Amino acid sequence: MTSLFAFNLTEHRTLFVQLDALEAEVERAGETIARALEAGGKLLVCGNGGSAADSQHIAAELTGRFIRDRRPLAAIALTTDTSALTSIANDYAFDDVFARPVRALGRAGDVLLGISTSGNSANVLRAVDAARELGITSIGLLGRDGGALRTRCDQAIVVPSTTTARIQEAHILIGHTLCGLVEQKLGLA
Ligand SMILES: O=C(CO)[C@@H](O)[C@H](O)[C@H](O)[C@H](O)COP(=O)(O)O
Ligand SMILES: [Zn+2]
Questions:
Q1: Could you tell me if 37 and 43 are in contact, meaning their C-beta atoms sit under 8 angstroms apart?
Q2: Structure pTM?
Q3: What is the pLDDT of residues 97-116, one digit of tens each?
Q4: Rounded to the nearest whole angstrom, what is the distance from the C-alpha of residue 175 to the centroid of ligand 2?
Q5: What is the total count of domains within the chain?
Q6: In this structure, what is the dihedral angle of CA atoms 183, 18, 56, 112, given to the nearest 10 degrees?
Q7: Which residues lie at CB < 5 A from ion ligand 2?
Q8: Nearest CA among 104, 184, 176, 113 for reference residue 142
Q9: Cα Rg, the chain, nearest whole Å
Q10: Which of 36, 85, 115, 130 has the greatest count of CB atoms below 10 A from its CB?
Q11: String of b and e for 112-151 (b: at least 16 CB within 10 Å)?
């Protein structure tokens, strides 16, 4: 019998050989984020569950450091403030937990990275809609068929898998690549 680890590894490998197809979208997203940071904008990142963890991970690579010692870069995960998350969910709706901070903190010229394996999380969709109203470029880091976010975001990177865990594994590879591209493009690598 195939072990679970062997099964997961096979599924992971099968997916990862298909990711070359995303090269142009990943490069474009890296360019968009780098140009926004260069112009004084910031990156806002949001997602649920494992994607909340990815949001924090990616933002931390930029405010802290990824590969090399360099100046801090402006990035905020909208998933870390439990007081804001609980009060917005309690007083308004869970679907508003990211949109409201986007309206509070976002400025034209910023970039919003919305991470969702289904592409259908309502709170990420609302954040993207708020971003559009404010002149903030939205990038969806998605999975499955990209869901509703595929067309609602200005740019979409869709990992072609239906397994949430495998999609998340690809997302963090892409997230790390975006951080590396930002460092390269800003001459900080
Ligand atoms: O990490 C996992 C599963 O691997 C879960 O926590 C998962 O992120 C949650 O079910 C999320 O709520 C899924 O949301 P989304 O990716 O569809 O937007
Ligand atoms: Zn997970």
A1: yes
A2: 0.98
A3: 999 999 999 999 999 999 99
A4: 15
A5: 1
A6: 70
A7: 50, 168
A8: 113
A9: 16
A10: 115
A11: bbbbbbbbbbbbbbbbbebbeeeebbbbbbbbbebbbbbe
